[in-house]
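in:
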């Protein structure tokens, strides 16, 4: 309600929206019920209705948490109400992109650079995890992950970009070193 009031004060048409975030609660127009467990907002922006969830602090403008997507909702307007659908973002909107560059050295070990960029609901989750997880636990998790590449691999460093800018997807990059990962030839005896 506070967000709706602030948007109206800023000159926008904004409305409170009742939403059920669990599938079995999804609104059925022919069988009305009051089974809502959440309230979000809608704003008229560029002649479109854009839904906003002010409780999802890592969710950028124009996106929604997964539980708010593809829901039948009750939008309270100045004159009555309207039943609307929240968007269901396609797979191309919710992505995890991973880039890895691996170099094999003369000792048959590797150095690798890995970059993970996330979008949509994955961006929201990754951003939340990186914001609220102590740095030493983030580092420990990365160290555990690189053990899946090679037992004994070392995390050289990691970098987080765009963590506090909701308009740019968060990215996590790290470097690792692993010794002698190539299979050794069998010796004939």
């Amino acid at each position: 309600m506070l967000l709706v009031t602030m948007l109206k004060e800023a000159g926008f048409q904004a409305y409170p929206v009742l939403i059920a975030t669990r599938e079995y609660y999804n609104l059925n127009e022919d069988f009305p019920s009051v089974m809502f467990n959440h309230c979000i907002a809608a704003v008229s922006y560029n002649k479109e209705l854009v839904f906003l969830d002010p409780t999802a602090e890592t969710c950028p403008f124009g996106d929604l948490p997964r539980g708010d997507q593809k829901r039948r909702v009750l939008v309270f307007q100045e004159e009555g109400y309207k039943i609307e659908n929240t968007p269901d973002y396609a797979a191309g909107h919710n992505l995890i992109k991973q880039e890895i560059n691996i170099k094999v050295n003369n000792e048959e070990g590797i150095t690798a650079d890995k970059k993970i960029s996330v979008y949509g609901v994955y961006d929201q989750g990754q951003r939340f995890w990186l914001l609220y997880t102590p740095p030493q636990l983030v580092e420990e998790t990365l160290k555990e992950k690189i053990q899946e590449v090679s037992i004994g691999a070392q995390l050289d460093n990691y970098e987080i970009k765009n963590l506090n800018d909701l308009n740019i997807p968060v990215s996590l990059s790290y470097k690792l070193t692993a010794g002698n990962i190539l299979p050794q030839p069998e010796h004939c005896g």
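note: The two ends are 79 Å apart (CA to CA).
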